[in-house]
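Lab meeting, action items carried over

1. Structure of the two-component assembly. Owner: GW. Status: complete.
Input record:
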Amino acid sequence: MGGGAVKYELVAGFETHVELSTKTKIFCSCTTAFGGEPNTHCCPVCIGLPGTMPKLNERVVEYAIMAGLATDCEIAEIAKMDRKNYCYPDLPKAYQISQYDRPLCEHGHITLSNGRQIRILRIHIEEDAGKLIHNHGDTYVDYNRGGVPLIEIVTEPDFRSIDEAKEYVERLQQIMRYIGVSDCRMQEGSMRCDVNISVRPVGSDTLGTRTEIKNMNSITNIAKAMEYEYERQVELIESGGTVVQETLRYDDADGTTSPMRSKEDAHDYRYFREPDLVTISVPRSRVEEIRATLPELPEQKKRRYIDDYGIPEKDAAMLTKYRAIAEFFDSASDGLQNPKAVSNFIIGQMFRRLETEADKEAFDLSTTPAHLRELCALLEAGKIRNNLAKTVLEKMLDSGKPVTAFVSEEDMAGLSDDTLAEYCRSAIAAMPNAVADYKGGKEKALMALLGNVMKQSRGRADAAAVTVKLKELIG
Amino acid sequence: MVTREDIENIALLSKLFVDESELDSLTEEMQKIVAFADTINTVDAGESDFDNINNLSNVFREDAVQPSLPPSMILSNAPEQAEDHFLVRRRA
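Predicted assembly:
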């Protein structure tokens, strides 16, 4: 990257809009359901008719505080709403009710896997705008989305690489889903990222002129847009040009960025206090109440799985990627000595039945955590062997039935030494070639004999004990 | 100091048409308004939190859905509409 002698460093910051999954809009009781026939989720408040009064949805405040706490923000004792004025058809009032100088949450951070901290400057609440459909120069306006509650999460310009940016977006998505404040579906627009990006010579500590890229609807596109914009700025500077501060649109089709027309000819939002809404005050006791409702966050869970259960980091990351999986694991391993075995069954066998990320996220399988726990308890008690447990789990997953439907008392009784010896003798008798091969020095030939014994015992035999017995009998 | 350019800019943002002949008088009036605000700003108000001056806070609504209005009513005041959308024509 960067053709000349000077190496350039990327500097980026994120502004992320996340739609909150409340039932109703931020200032009226219309539904927030996605889609719907045009202008069917509207009322006089959200289409901005004169004389209507907004009334704040309490859950929006609660969700924003949850988001703040989950990202280590300080929660304001006093916050207020402000009007951000701009004239564009997506805003029926010609202003958006947002927060300017007293947002609900400030000064948080998210720590990335490389140890670097991304500082969160603020998280504020605001209303979403309507949807515009442009057609031959005319604009069709649907206000169903107008007034849907958003939080805007603003970071400091702390990103130094595209990988960091990707990880941040994934982590943010994961956290917001865990705490249940948003489904963060980028394709449906319930999570939207704007990236501020600039470049500077490595070693410099002044910021270069930044551009802002909008309109990216996937993590892949964010990465591509950043890559393109980084190269464009470096080439511009190296050829003697200067970067102009402007807002760019990312074009998914050709992978380029191009200037957007400004929403307002003169860019001045003239923020002022929203006179129709009173102050939001958040007593410290309320913050603690909300904190107490937060689930264990993915990073904490991951650490616990690694440190307390000895689960490999890669596996722990898979278990904690979606809350449903982690909760299944927590419930299935509850009270067991060896949660790692539970993890192995989930990752090894259950994941195979979940093809898409959406399937994994839902983690909707016919086997319940209690069923898996029961199976693992039998394994721990030495009542069944690992091979049998694997086979039984497949049957359980096929049928939704508990382990007791497939494992009999006899199976669980284990094998007596006599029975084991009998199986071994019968294997030796049945497979003279394998015996000859083994005697001739082929260690692997023993595996064939072991397989035969396992088959006879329907997986109940202990492989190590069988091996010892076979060697003893062959001599 | 309020300038004629400030007035022109405010007029533009407010979508107001201001005649050239009005600019001087409007600049003067705006200057007086700003001066008034400046006077108020000189008062020592101590530690008062002006964002919460009425001590009135937390007027909330429960998150429960109420029926919306039919699109015919929502669109009834639209200057133009098409296919249940508000229609904004291309500016000539």
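2. GW to write a short summary for the group page. Key points so far: Chain B has a mean pLDDT of 90. The interface with chain A takes residues 9, 12-13, 15, 49, 51-52, 54, 56-66, 68-71, 74-75, 77, 82-90 of chain B (CB under 8 Å).
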